[in-house]
Design goal:
The complex is a heterodimer of chains A (188) and B (307). Chain A is 37% helix and 23% strand. Chain A is an alpha+beta fold and 188 residues long. In chain A, strands 1, 2, 3, 4, 5, 6 and 7 form a 7-stranded antiparallel β-sheet that branches. In chain A, strand 5 and strand 6 form a beta hairpin. The N terminus of chain A is likely disordered. Chain B has 307 residues and is mainly alpha-helical. Chain B has a 4-stranded mixed β-sheet with strand order 1-2-4-3, with helices on both faces. In chain B, a hairpin with a 7-residue loop joins strand 3 and strand 4. In chain B, helix 4 packs across helix 6 and helix 8 packs parallel to helix 12. Chain B starts with 12 loop residues before the first helix and ends with a helix. Classes of the chains: A alpha+beta (188), B mainly alpha (307).
């Protein structure tokens, strides 16, 4: 049974996403870091039948969520050939739950490898901090993009990972802190 | 070791020569600039007066402005006994007047010196720097900033930038003038006045661009000189070298590449090779860390041999 059954590690794979929902009240109360009311989830689409089935089911899920919790969504493609599910909701908990639900449906369809990252943007000291969750590593890291789309505020990022390190499962290897330039937050 | 060990290992002659060469080029460039403007009938004296006032504002401007912009405050011996003790020791070695000591409330690991002369001088370190470095490394960084003060770098850079500021102001002014058809009452001169304006505009752009490159080169040379000064002052170049390694090492690990690009590249086994570092070097105000660290390591062996 265990040979074909779903391993526990897969079932709990993205529980770290729930950690940011738990941490968010502390973000705002203790660190003056506030949600922008948006979130983005990006994946690499493919042409298989399985995948189009997954996408249509996902849309049903998101539309149902829109009616239930008022979480708006939009799906856009980018120049890298990745697709973005952009969601907006004033309740951060609803956003995090929506990301978690989408991740679960990818898992259930065996498409977890298509998932790249989820991005949770916050305002902090006049800048936007994007907490990036990578599905490959199951950990978070901060990304503070500059206005020019080329430079990032490494000092703020390091400072933040020191401060927030206890609240989130943090990516310890700085070499893995890849940027995600131009997340289409305006699409929703 | 002697009481005043600073120059006992001699100066870096080629560095000094390059520094003077750049300063000479700057002076020549500015002379050309003023002459060209005069020749083209641009009333440059007004611009020089305005820029002069800005300069005076900087020159006599209070350190409070600098401190405020860096979120820093001057600290006394009771507040920061360790920092003061370090500065005291280094200042005694360098035989200079003790500058004010300030601490900036930011996690950015950095330090700077300000003040147009030794009496007005101030050395500032950030909390992030103090937190990350051990005492020896911090001493190396402070010695580097003290060398800037001793070498009169703040004053030198202010002077070097003066005419670049003039050129930049003229550039802006002339752009609006050419757009809105000449200098008021002179507009009756027609196309020849307009041609002169265009000409002056392009000269200003050229001067500004060249001046910026030269100033950046000068700044890089002065950084090398301050590194050398710090090495002499602490008697251990490795202190500053390891501080630089620590600061740059942390920052340098964080990539700027996009996650999507990297994922795609991984799939096709493509390695991104070109990064345009030559170009960055030309426009940087500080020399690359690796070069500074390499030179400090060279001093280290040089000093060991001299002992």
């Amino acid at each position: 049974m265990a040979l074909f059954g779903r391993g526990t590690s897969t079932a709990n794979a993205d529980d770290a996403i729930l950690a940011i929902a738990v941490a968010e009240p502390t973000f705002s109360a203790a660190h003056q870091m506030f949600t922008t009311g948006k979130v983005g989830l990006t994946y690499k689409p493919n042409d298989s039948e399985f995948f189009s089935e997954l996408e249509s089911e996902m849309k049903k899920l998101l539309t149902a969520g829109e009616k239930m919790t008022g979480t708006r969504y939009n799906i856009v493609s980018d120049e890298y050939g990745y697709r973005w599910i952009m969601m907006a909701d004033d309740q951060f908990e609803d956003l995090a739950m929506a990301v978690y639900a989408v991740s679960q449906s990818f898992n259930e369809h065996g498409c977890r490898d298509q998932l790249l990252a989820a991005v949770f943007p916050f305002t902090y000291e006049g800048k936007i901090v994007e907490w990036i969750y990578t599905y490959k590593h199951g950990r978070f890291y901060p990304f503070v993009p500059g206005m020019d789309g080329k430079h990032r505020d490494n000092n703020m990022e390091i400072g933040l990972s020191d401060k927030i390190g206890k609240l989130l499962p943090m990516e310890k290897k700085l070499t893995q802190w890849y940027a995600l330039w131009g997340v289409p937050f305006d699409a929703v | 070791m002697a009481m005043n060990p600073r120059w006992t290992y001699g100066k870096d002659t080629s560095l000094t020569l390059r520094m003077y060469f750049v300063m000479f080029m700057l002076a020549a460039l500015y002379l050309f600039f003023v002459t060209a403007m005069w020749g083209l009938g641009i009333p440059i004296q007004f611009v020089i007066i305005i820029a002069g006032l800005m300069f005076m504002f900087q020159w006599f401007g209070s350190e409070k402005l600098v401190l405020r912009s860096m979120h820093a405050k001057v600290v006394n011996e009771q507040e920061q006994p360790k920092l003061h003790a370090m500065v005291d020791k280094l200042v005694a070695n360098a035989d200079m007047i003790k500058p004010k000591v300030a601490l900036a409330m930011t996690d950015v690991p950095n330090a700077f010196a300000s003040g147009r002369n030794q009496k007005k001088a101030l050395v500032c370190v950030t909390e992030g720097l103090v937190r990350r470095l051990d005492d020896d490394e911090l001493e190396g960084v402070i010695a580097h900033e003290l060398s800037h003060i001793k070498n009169g770098d703040v004053r030198a850079m202010m002077l070097a930038s003066f005419f670049a500021t003039v050129a930049a102001m003229l550039m802006n002014m002339l752009m609006w003038m050419t757009l809105f058809g000449g200098m008021g009452r002179h507009s009756s001169h027609g196309s020849s006045a307009r041609g002169a304006l265009m000409m002056a505009y392009f000269v200003s752009i050229l001067v500004y661009f060249l001046a910026t490159l030269l100033i950046l080169a000068l700044s890089r040379y002065r950084e090398f000189a301050a590194d050398r000064g710090a090495a002499m002052l602490t008697g251990a170049p490795s202190k500053l070298a390891s501080a630089l390694e620590k600061i740059s090492g942390i920052i340098a690990q964080i990539p700027t590449d996009d996650l999507r690009k990297v994922e795609t590249a991984n799939a096709f086994f493509i390695v991104s090779a070109l990064k345009g570092e030559k170009f960055a070097g030309l426009f940087a105000s500080h020399p690359p860390m690796e070069k500074r660290i390499a030179r400090l390591r060279e001093f280290e062996t040089e000093m060991e041999r001299g002992r």
